Amino acid sequence: METVNITPAEKTAAVPAVRKKRKWTADHWLAAAFLAPSVILIFLFVYGFIAWTGYVSLSNWNSLVPDWSFAGLKNYLYLFHDFRFQADLRNTLVFTVLFIAAVIVLGQLLAILLDQKLRGESLFRNIFFFPMALSFVVTGVVWQWLFNPSTGVNLFLKPLGLDSKWYTDTTILGGFHWGKIEFGIPVAIIAVVVAAVWQMTGFAVAMYLAGLRAIPDEVREAARMDGATEFQLYWKIILPLLRPITVSVIIIMAHISLKIFDLIYAMTGPGANFVTDVPGVYMFETTFRGNYYANGAAIAIVMLLSVAIFIVPYLISSRKGGS
């Protein structure tokens, strides 16, 4: 039998490397001590209350007296067969689509305009960014005055033969029956979209302007030397380069629109026939005015899941891209 000689170096290579346990130093323990209170509070007051809300939504607690008996999905089934909640889902969908589309288009156009090195650029930047300093409550009150059918902008429109009802209009554009509601675009929600776009467009402008300023001038010059027009330059080169910013704007604006409450509550309320109602307002009135705690908790969980549909995939893709 042939004997195989193995050198000491080969023996060492054959043995799998054992990863040494990293010992925690005093700095590690100090960092953990500083982070521990925040982690505990987040788990308690964020995830703990989410779990508690989910538990209440599965109970029969729909009065001032707590009733912890298990109700299963009864509260959720009630919601999705409820006329008001169906109207809320329609309004939220329409508001989200119009709001995001308008913010992206206006944000890109204004950012491109500011990127042209205009005289007085800082003044225009401040004008576009100023609404972001206001709360949605202030914005709602101001635009409620402006869109008041008896006063506001109608004072200028009436001499021209135009008399809009704005947020009091109950008309549904392109409506067709779906469930218990007429599905379409409520005219009243357009007034709310205008107010929200006025406030949040500055955020998109800031994002897109930062992206435009990060694109090297050599890219533009090379495209122009290849014969690209200004429209082709932006449509085929600049805007595709800004796609990651567009995704971020969509995610952030969707997060805002899906849980919108204060702007609607201050500006219009639920509206006639619930044409401007949203789940946030319905949840508030159901829980704190009607004392239907289980139903209100079910609305809150539906809102959480709708936001998670947008946020969670974005966070997962961002984490994969960063690793």
From TrEMBL:
The chain crosses the membrane at residues 29-52, 93-114, 126-146, 183-212, 233-258, 292-316. It is found in: Cell membrane. The keyword Transmembrane helix applies. Keywords: Cell membrane, Membrane, Transmembrane, Transmembrane helix, Transport. Residues 89-316 form the ABC transmembrane type-1 domain. Signal peptide: none annotated. It is a multi-pass membrane protein. Belongs to the binding-protein-dependent transport system permease family. This is Carbohydrate ABC transporter permease. It comes from Geobacillus jurassicus.
